[in-house]
Amino acid sequence: MKISNLHRLVQMAATASVAMGLAVSAHAQEEPKLIINGEQEMITHAIPPAYIDGLSESISGWVFRTKETQALELDDFDNPGMIFVDQAQELWDKEMGPENKSCASCHGDVSSMKGVRTVMPKFNEKAGELWTLEDYINDSLTTHMGMEPWGYTSTEMTAMAALIGNQSRGMPMNVAIDGPAAPYWAKGKEMYYTRTGVLELSCASCHEDNYGNYIRADHLSQGQINGMPSYRMKNAKLNGIHARFKGCVKDTKAETYKPGGPEFHALELYVASRGNGLSVESPSVRN
Ligand code: HEC
Ligand code: HEC
Fold first, then answer.
1. Main-chain phi, psi angles of 166, to 5 degrees
2. 103 in ligand 1 pocket by Cβ < 6 Å?
3. Is 3-76+171-286 a domain of CATH 1.10.760.10?
4. What is the pTM of this model?
């Protein structure tokens, strides 16, 4: 990040309360609707659960993108993320590993995964841990197929997460934060509001206090993850949740955490809960 940008960031944090006024104006305009393939309408605005105190409305990141970027998500033929979904479909049906099994051997058609994405991450009783969709995929690879796990942010993993997520497209996110998930949620919430790095910014500094404002050339969203994985114009590939978190933490000039590690698991649960009620968009298109 260039020095001039650092200045602007710091200034932005300092004038956050003034800037809040700008965020409101976005709502006054007529907003476009996210209707995919001309038939499937996504929920892009939702009332957040009562336990989320910092937001009066949850809004999909799609709403904050330019018309050109938005248009790419309106049709599966235009959505570059669908290429990866098609690749993952081939992988789903492919016999792999020492036991020559495919995902389909046990799960049948991938449509059996409908709804799975809406409740991820969730507490896994057997493991006694909070598991993300990626963890479930790796568990099937290792315990059910005798294979090595895929890298947490690898191309196969992110594509498979998009294929499985795609089965729930349109369904509202609905993660559980109670029972054994509660301590993870509390840890994630603390991370979300903790200012870190040279710039002393928290996730909330940008995605709660300043959504609707511009930072560099970017129109700041609420940093929601209902669209994940998302195809980004910036790196021309699918990006998973932890990869995106990593980039944002790095931007604050803080030490970042490892994708797949315990910190990002907790953060993912908390961020997912802020978007409970928003439609799964996997794969979304962002800049
Ligand atoms: C030999 C059978 C078998 C194969 C092959 C298999 N799985 Fe599974 N999978 C299971 C079982 C059984 C579960 C239920 C959880 C458990 O008991 O481990 C499961 C659970 C899952 C879940 C979590 C679903 C949920 O409702 O929470 C996902 C996601 C998943 N598998 C993905 C995959 C993918 C992707 C592949 C291929 C790379 C695959 N599985 C291959 C047996 C299999
Ligand atoms: C310095 C400001 C800043 C901070 C701090 C920040 N982000 Fe971001 N984040 C951005 C920008 C800019 C983008 C790209 C535009 C957008 O979607 O807001 C982004 C995008 C995202 C996205 C993608 C949203 C989508 O619709 O696909 C997620 C998720 C996200 N951030 C999460 C986080 C989390 C979690 C934290 C805290 C660890 C965080 N961000 C901290 C600036 C920030």
1. -60, -25
2. yes
3. yes
4. 0.93
The per-residue pLDDT for range 131-154, each reduced to its tens digit, is 999 999 999 999 999 999 999 999
Helices (H), the chain: 3-14, 16-28, 67-72, 81-93, 103-107, 133-139, 155-166, 182-193, 203-207, 241-251, 262-274
Across 205-220, average pLDDT = 94
User: For the chain, what percent of residues have pLDDT higher than 70?
Assistant: 90
Nearest atom in ligand 2 to 62's CA = 26
- For the CA of 143, the closest atom of ligand 1 is 18
Distance 192 CA to ligand 2 centre (A): 11
Pick the CATH number of 81-166 from 3.30.70.100, 1.10.760.10, 2.160.10.10, 2.40.128.20: 1.10.760.10
Ligand closest to 287 (CA) is: 2
Residue 7's pLDDT is what?
43
- Ligand 2 site, residue 229, Cβ cutoff 6 A: no
Q: Which single residue is written with the structure tokens 């998930």?
A: 181
Which position has the higher pLDDT, 9 or 182?
A: 182
